[in-house]
Amino acid sequence: MAAQKILVIDDDTQLRESLAEVLELEGFKCFQAGNAKGGIASAKKSVPEVVIMDIQLPDSSGFQICQELRKFSKDFILIMMTGRFLSAEEKTQGFALGADEYITKPFDIQELSIRIRQLLSRRGNK
Description:
Radius of gyration: 13 Å
CATH class: Alpha Beta
Distance between the termini: 9 Å
Number of domains: 1
Shape: globular
Number of helices: 5
Structural class: alpha/beta
CATH architecture: 3-Layer(aba) Sandwich
CATH superfamily: Response regulator
Largest sheet: 5 strands, parallel
CATH topology: Rossmann fold
């Protein structure tokens, strides 16, 4: 069975690399991008099952990435990361654009891994 693919989009290199490293130890195959443009291109090329993206990126926002990726495919599981409190309106906007989940930094990577597996199993991905 091929490892499920995860794309991590975050301009914080240390966080992005650490997250990818731990998720690979959890059995996932990870791809990384440091900005929205690279992330969208990588998602279209590698077609991961899960995309984890920071909401605030230097060249765009997680909301715009969500919107762009949903035009390309309805199959991605999109997880938004944020380092700040989000208002109900912001969360509603993200869900309306196609986000499946929100996580707030700092977060427990083991918890994130479990959430990813739950979302994948609900989608019927084995």
